[in-house]
Amino acid sequence: MNKIWIKNISYTLCGKIMAMIASVVTDIVIARLLEIQSYAEWTFFFSILTMLNWAGWLGINISSKVIVSKCTSDIEEAKCLKSARLVRFFFSVCIGIVLYVFLPRLAPLGGYPQKYPELKWLFSVACILVFFNSFVEFYKEIFMGVNKFKWLFLITTAEYMGYFLFSTFFLFLNREIKSVVYGYVASGIVVFLIGYFGIYLNYRDKVVIGKNLLFEYVVPIMRYSIPIALLGMGVVILTEMDTFMLGIFSTKENVAVYGIAKNICHKAAHLNNAFSSGIMTTFSVVTANNFMDRKSKYKNAERINIFITTLISAGLFLFSKATISILYGKSYLEAAHVINILIPYYFLFGISNFYSFFLDFRNKAGKRCVWYCSVVFLNMLLNRILIPKYGAEGAAIATSISLLPYTVYSYVASVKEWNEINYQIKNGGLQ
């Protein structure tokens, strides 16, 4: 690997490790300081919040990253970032207003007040959480796109350490779900300011922009955000619909146990994300002159990702029981069994995520939509069949099986993309 890769991956990996540790510790603190019934309600709400966050992104964050990664100068980057931030602010405000007006009215459908007594209040403040989360993720994607991975590390660390510190502080003051929400809001405000300052500091001398230039970047950002948004909804349904359906069709205990298992698998995937996000900007632009070099680097990266995924899968299998017992306590020990069932899901996610990153940077997100829709449908169908009878185990089985078709597709699509690039070079269509 070259020095740029090592530097980018190091910053990203350190950020992901900090995020993983802080996130798991935060979850442990919440599980231990809240009663199991309250922790289950938080887990149920958090799965809904995650889906709302993805809806709030609307594909704008990743679209902005891809567009800005193709800019060839600091001036172009500054113009693109200005446009992207205006688009982000407009849609974040609009979505926040819609959620504030309509979401609390849906609380009875989720089990309020009998099963989840705090759900209506949680729904009423979700708009604030979604607003700040949209900007937190926006800044992370932007700094990745402009290859400023030091700022990506700073924002990632500040976000998850903020969740831990603020939530723990408020929980010690008052052991209820509202304290966790206050912690998340406080962290969102801090990271929002850090991200704004980061862009200002790096581009304050370069922003010269008019209306025509604004629309020059707004249109591409909006156009590419559409398939990204559709894929994003597919991803979040695949990753969170199981927890949501558990909350509806099963017990609070199953929700709590599954939430812990799923959280650990997701945090393990941070290492794959760190590796993939640290290198994929390299393949954003492939020409006839650099094709062989880029193809060779891609193959090496592919092998490394498979090795990382296999190693982590083995670690999850060998140490999950001891880890759950030590960190969460014996009352949550069933989560270790659920983790073992989710290992195929993590493995498939780690592999397919690598190819998905590549396809996104090659402007091929639209072609993934149909396949992901089939995955979403399969996931929902299997969850509906298995959860009522098998609870958390059924959700884990459904989630693991449903990702298999998309993993096969993402690999095949990546191979075809390299073949297409090679074909264009041979026929003079790519210089």
Automatic annotation (TrEMBL):
It holds the Pfam family Polysacc_synt. The chain crosses the membrane at residues 12-33, 39-60, 86-107, 119-139, 151-173, 179-201, 213-238, 274-292, 304-329, 335-357, 369-387, 393-412. Keywords: Cell membrane, Membrane, Transmembrane, Transmembrane helix. Its main location: membrane. One of its GO terms (cellular component) is plasma membrane. It is found in: Cell membrane. The keyword Iron-sulfur does not apply. It is a multi-pass membrane protein. This is Membrane protein involved in the export of O-antigen and teichoic acid. It comes from Butyrivibrio hungatei DSM 14810.
